[in-house]
Amino acid sequence: MAVIKPEGWLLDTAENREALRSPANLLRAEEEGRTVEARALVCDSSHNLIVDLGCMKGIIPREEGALGLDDGTTRDIAVISRVNKAVCFKIISLPHPPDKMAVLSRRAAQEEAVRLYISKLKPGDIIDARVTHLEPFGCFVDIGCGIASLIPIDLISVSRIAHPRDRFRVGQDIRAVVKSVEGPSRVCLTHKELLGTWEENAANFTPGETVAGIVRSVESYGIFVELAPNLAGLAEPKEGVKPGQHASVFIKSLIPEKMKVKLIIVDAFDAEYKPEEPYYYITGDHIDRWVYSPPGCEKVIETVFK
Q1: Which of left, alpha, beta for 281 (phi over 0: left; psi -120 to 50: alpha)?
Q2: DSSP secondary structure string, 106-148?
Q3: What is the pLDDT of residue 269?
Q4: Structure confidence by residue, pLDDT tens digits, 261-294
Q5: What pLDDT is attached to residue 20?
Q6: Where are the transmembrane segments (predicted)?
């Protein structure tokens, strides 16, 4: 199976830079049917994209701007939002004389991405993705040539978050797992399985330590504090603590058979620390089953990919 990367990954490769160096090189890329990337300069009033090819300019007509524009399943914002960013495309025709614009098709590049790569993905496949925008309900990512997919907020990590921006930023490159495939180009993703089991995360902490954490929720019976994206503990109630605050917490105990971490909040405070880059415990390209809970635990938490 061919692997096609998110839009922008080709832009600074040696082969792509060489293709943009001269009209002759662009002609060779056209003849070979290669996907090329360049920066979109303008989206005109008719929603055609004007692209900087280095040695000339090119135009992606609106109808060639993205899969689904012709039947309304994709909105024009998918084209407008590419201005000043990399766009992928196939070269349809080069101008004669060369002072006119080349005609390009982003839709053709996306069709190839679907045919050769996205339509062949299976649940459990681990793929590269690039964060494109964040909504309260989840994180949208590009999984190849600008094809969008969603990681629902509850599948981002085991530790619950208020908004995907608590984990990700736009433009960030991440890994994700195919959760389900609902059509040739419709793929739903999950992320939490890559962030480690309870045991793997708990191994980084020892009772008696005071460590950093983030307050995720405040309940009448205690305060949930995240120690890692896939590990949270319950602290005793403390006056004035609010969700979203950073904290220093004392670890009283780790109880694997109940997947519990007992904490005491030493201090809680407001801070604007950026989310850390995710650490992935799984480095392969596929998983069939992931078990979060430790062996012998009273409750089994797992994901089975079918």
Answers
A1: alpha
A2: HHHHHHHHHHHTGGG--TTBEEEEEEEEEETTEEEEE-STT-E
A3: 97
A4: 999 999 999 998 888 899 999 989 999 999 999 9
A5: 96
A6: none
What's the mean pLDDT when you consider all of the chain? 95
Could you report the per-residue pLDDT of 33-85, keeping only the tens digit for each? 999 999 999 999 999 999 999 999 999 999 999 998 888 888 999 899 999 99
Beta bridge partners, 203, equal none
What pTM value is reported for the model?
Answer: 0.93
Nearest-angstrom CA–CA distance, 51 and 34: 17
Strand partners, 268: 247
Distance CA 171, CA 106 (A): 20
Tokens in use for 141?
């990512």
Domains parsed from the chain with CATH numbers: 14-116 (2.40.50.140), 198-269 (2.40.50.140)
Predicted confidence (pLDDT) per residue in 207-234, tens digit? 999 999 999 999 999 999 999 999 999 9
β partners of residue 82: none
Given this model, what pLDDT does residue 73 score?
84
